Amino acid sequence: MHFNRKPLVIGLAAAVAGFTVTPIAIAQSESLAIEEVVVTARKRTENLQEVPIAISAIGETTIERAGIERASDYISLIPNVTIVDAANVGDTQVSIRGVVSTRDAESTFAYIVDGVLSTNPNSFNEELFDVQQIEVLKGPQGALYGRNAVAGAILVTTKEPTNEFEAKVGGGIANNNAYKVNAMVSGPIVEDTLLGRFSISTRETDGFYKNIFTGEDDSVDYLEDTSARGRLIWNVSEDMSLDFRAGYSEVKGGAINFNAAFAIPAFEQNFGAPGFFQDVNDLDFRYTFNVPGENEQETLDFAVKMDWDLGFADLVANIAYNNLEEYLLSDGTSATFYGYELTGACQADRQTLNSFSRPDLFGPFFNPYGVLPPGEENDFSGVYGPYTPTSCDGYQYQERNQEDLSFDARLVSPGDQALRWIGGIYLAEIEREVVVGYGADTGNGFNRTPYVPADGPNPTDLLFWDDFDTTVYAVYGQIEFDLTDTLEIALAGRYDREEREVTNKVPNVSNSGLNINLLDDNFQPTPINPAFNSNPNGIPKRDDTYSQFQPKLTLNWAATDNMNIYGSYGVGFRSGGFNSVGTEDLLNFWFNAGYGGAGEAVNAQINVTDDYDKEVSEAFEVGMKSEFMDRRLRLNAALFRTDVEDNQFFEFFAGPFGLLRSVTTIDEMYIQGFEADITFIATEGLTFYGGVGLMDSEIEKNKNRPLSQGNDVPQAPETTGNLGAEWVIALSTNINLVSRLDWSYVGETWFHTLQGEQTPTIWNAFFGPGNNQDFSKSSRDAYDTLDLRIGLEADNWRVTAWGRNITDEKYLEEVIPAPEFGGSFNHQSAQRSYGLDFSYLF
Questions:
Q1: DSSP symbol at 80
Q2: Residues in domain TonB-dependent receptor plug (predicted)?
Q3: Which residues pair with 693 in a beta bridge?
């Protein structure tokens, strides 16, 4: 294995010296031994320390004591794993060893709940309640988990129904007018035969930020979530059981809460205003939108799993159904390009909402923003910025709806044989509807539909609306064989085939004519989707098929009774897909020469098409799992290298047309690194834990952005880590004082392939050449956070005072660069929060 640029041996020494760890449940016993953790990473129950995969396993005790309620809460405890949760609820990007999930594409990791693979990306960011264990598997897991497991897999196990009645209530209050209430009831319906469990959770918060324009403190990052989950286990016989699981959730929250930052050095020099070339980490954030940023989701899921002991093997089969309906509404960004400058609503707003009358909304005059009062001498002269209080920037509307049905069946041999095997099949049918629309804010309210005609309150001027149908077929298997008493070899493989079809649903009509940038040379409205220019009789369907064989080879050596050393090679696969029809035509017109539009002056030479290729990752890993000091000290570590072809990368475009989301590919890149985690029981009741992750990455080839070759891989920070301590003091025979302190660190992070190389912007079409972007100030600074929890625990109750980010660290959650716009769109992180939780078990 070839490693370059940074000697990972130095990282290994630093990590071991630095007490790096991942939290697990600790047994409070006289021996002070670390409790054995059972995982299901290879689709059978095994000891964590014997599984040849880098796994972070978080048990029930840690889930409760660390206050884990959403995905971001446990990801901060795992080295080389990071998360971005910014645009709307459920729109998360998870980076596992530098391979990050992509907006508008499939996920990069398999998400499995109670043994059932979820095909809906939004389900990952659901509320976590009544959960037994979480397992995070790093590295490609395609051989067993198939589609999308190019970075890893995350397994969540919820609590099973009990054979004795129990009930639990809980809740909490916190700053920002936050509260939560939850309840659970479990027990036998028919003793030993039919067992049921039902749990429900609801929470609300106003969020951390306030809309300066409206004065509302519950309209920016607010959240309302109500989720319910039911589970029924029917023990049909001694050999067969059926596990029924159903869930429902309603979520409302803020959406698209970004502020923009220019990254154009020429503007800074020409106008003498530093605001045109800003460090994104020093932004003065102002939320001033007049269009309510709102996101509403409704999710229904159902699954049934059968376990049938056939003697020679267990037959495990499940069928799962999921339905998501979601929309987003928010302000637009097109005001900078004067698209709606002459509308009555924009002119009326500028009378009272301008930089002279309301400097609190726009900041220092023309540094960088300046909104002028109405008048012919002032029209087409301001610098408005995005998401403003005026109607001049229009609005955006999105939908992400999905319905899917999947089936998985496998035979699993007994685990106590020298030769162990698994063989299975997988089928899925996925229907996904994607809507991205932009239009005029006339001040008359909003119809929350994909298309609003010209005489409607908010007419649509640019629309992408597609139905995506996907059919998945897969066969998979694994053989594990004990070559000797201490040496195991495992060979796994999976073949996936995905048939994809996309149907365009955009009506063949012209836009409203209100956006002057979307008029033709005769000042007439153009088609509402640019693909109609080349397809006047209707946009045809598109289809393609993607397939991949995903092997995995593993050697596992029990070097001693307390140390396992393993090596593995594996392949992961993520299907290719389609951008919305019209993406290529629109970008060529505005940004590329040779297409007769503004792009003649820009000549950005970007290469974004209406479809994108499949992604394939290939990984090598060498790891160690060990325990010392009579199992009081656990140290696990791994070295890895992942090479990725056609990594699917989200690109964001802003221009006179409005906004556009698309997926491109990075042809070749690699990520290599080291990680370790450690747990140490110092004394009875006092446990230290932590983890460190070191990564070195490089973009080796990128036809879409050739200047990015040699740059770091986006969202692959060189260093991540966590360190913590848990102290349990017995106050009486059944009451403990429990304290927990968690520190986490994420290094400097780039969010785009361009990292300081200058490239053309749309401003060259307005002001001539030389107005290029420079993203050298657009990486997110390193940050660290500190969480503290102190509480009392008894046999049947718990009270905990807690604080998250108690040092009130200010950092960015996300940076979305838009090179051809000449800037980025930036989202703040959560601030300090604190509260009091309680629970009571009947």
A1: T
A2: 48-153
A3: 675, 720
Whether the pTM exceeds 0.85: the reply is yes
Are the CB atoms for 153 and 99 separated by under 8 Å? no
| pLDDT per position as a tens digit, 237-248 | 999 999 999 999
17, exposed or middle or buried, with CB in 10 Å at 0-12, 13-18, 19+? exposed
Q: Which of 287, 284, 279 is nearest to 208 (CA)?
A: 287
- How far, in whole angstroms, is CA 569 from its chain's centroid? 26
The average pLDDT across 729-739 equals: 95
Looking at residue 633, its pLDDT comes to 96
Distance CA 757, CA 743 (A): 35
Gyration radius of the chain over CA positions = 27
The band of 9, judged by pLDDT with boundaries at 50, 70 and 90, is very low
- Architecture category of domain 18-535+544-841 in CATH: Beta Barrel (2.40)
3-state secondary structure of 691: strand
Let me know if 485 is exposed, middle or buried by CB neighbors in 10 A (0-12, 13-18, 19+).
Answer: exposed
- Specify the DSSP element, H or E, that contains 602: helix 599-602
Residue in the block written with tokens 């990473």: 41
Q: Is 646 helix (H, G, I), strand (E, B) or coil?
A: strand
Mean pLDDT of 518-546: 92
d(CA 589, CA 527): 14
Beta carbons of 575 and 546 less than 8 angstroms apart: yes
H/E run at residue 818: strand 812-818
Q: Which two tokens stand for residue 226?
A: 């109500």
The answer to whether the beta carbons of residues 273 and 367 sit under 8 Å apart is: yes
Phi, psi of 755 (to 5 degrees): -135, 35
Measured CA to CA in angstroms, residue 327 lies from 206, 322, 462, 544, 839 at distances of 20, 17, 17, 28, 34
Helices H / strands E in the chain, number of each:
10, 37
The structure tokens 């716009």 sit at 821
